[in-house]
Amino acid sequence: MTSRGEFQRLADLGPHLAGSSPAVPVGVGDDAAVVRVGAQDVVVCVDVIVDGVHFRTDLSSPADVGWKAVAVNVSDLAAMGAIPQAAVVGLQRSPELTEDAIDQLYAGMAEAGREWGVAIVGGDTVTAPVWSVSLTAIGRPAAASITRGGARPGDRLVLVGPLGAAAAALWADGEGLPVPDDLLAAHRRPRALPSSGVALARAGATAMIDLSDGLGADAGHVARASGVDLRIDRTAVMAAVPSTVVDLLPEDLLARVALGGGEDFALLAAVPADRVDACEAALTETAEAPWRWIGTVEPPADPSTPAVWLDTPAGPPERIDAWGYDHG
C-alpha cells in the first residue's frame, strides 16, 4: 500500500478507464456508471468492504456486514437517482470465517435486499487471507441520471439524512467510552436513501452525491466536478447532527468528526432556484429521512481549485473539502 491515498489513486487510474460516450452515458468519476444496453440505460456500481477497514468483527456481526455491503451500493445508486434492482456478490473468505458466519452474511444481504428491492442474483467466492465482500449493484434511472457535475451558481444545497453518528461511534470506541446504541447501529447497519434520491431526480435536482467519506470531502467532489464553490451554513448543517453525537463529542472535535468522519450515507444535492418548491414537496412526501437546506453554490473564488467553505459565526469561513475519510 502506497501513501498516495484513495482519491489520488482513483484520479491516477482515470486514463485507463472509460469516459462518457453514446454507449456509456456516464463514465468514470461518479457514484456509479451508466451503461446503455439496447434502448435501456443501466446504472452500475461496486463497493468493496474489508475486515479492519470498513467493519470490525468485534463490533459487527456477519449479518451486519452483509447488510452494509448492500446498503453502501444502494446509497451509490440513490445518488444517481436510480431505482435499485439486483446485485452480485464476490466473497473473499478468510480461514477463520466459518460456514455459519457465511450463512449469516448472506442472510444479512438478503434482508437488506428485501428492504430496498435488490435481488441478490449470484456471485463468486474465493479463499483469501483477509475477509472482504465485493458487491456490484445495478439499477435503472428514475429520470435523467444525476451526476456530480451539474451544480451551478445560484443553486441551493439540500441535505437528506443525519450526519456524524457512525463516525462518533468509532471515535467513542477508540477512546474506550461506552458507545450509544443508536450510534453503533448507524455504523453496523447504515440506512441508504433511494426513495429520496429518486424523488430529487424527478423533481429537478441537477447534481447529487452520497456522503460516504464525509460531507467535506464528498462536497469537494461536487465542487470540482461542477467547477464551483460550495458554501455551507454551519448552523444549518450542524442541525443535522443527532443530539447523541453532540452530547458525546468534545466541542473542539464535533464539527470535524460530524462533517468529515464519513459513513453517513446521507445525500447532498444541488437544486436550481426554480426547482426548490418541487424538491421540498417531493422530499416531504417521500418522508424517508429528515432534510434541510444547508447552503448555496457560488462561482469559484479560484477556478483552478474549486472549494467547499464552512461559514463560521465569527471570523472567516473555513475550507473543509479535505475533511473526509481516505481508505488508502
Molecular structure report:
The chain is an alpha+beta fold and 328 residues long. It is 35% helix and 25% strand. Strand 3, helix 3 and strand 4 form a beta-alpha-beta unit. The protein has eleven helices and twelve strands. The strands form two sheets. A seven-stranded mixed beta sheet has the order 7-9-6-10-8-11-12. Strands 1-2-5-3-4 form a five-stranded mixed beta sheet. It folds into two domains: 136 residues, 2-Layer Sandwich (60s Ribosomal Protein L30, Chain: A); 164 residues, PurM-like C-terminal domain (Phosphoribosyl-aminoimidazole Synthetase, Chain A, domain 2). The N and C termini lie close together (8 Å). The longest helix has 18 residues. It holds the Pfam family AIRS_C. Pathway: Cofactor biosynthesis; thiamine diphosphate biosynthesis; thiamine diphosphate from thiamine phosphate: step 1/1. This is Thiamine-monophosphate kinase. Its EC number is 2.7.4.16. It catalyses: thiamine phosphate + ATP = thiamine diphosphate + ADP.
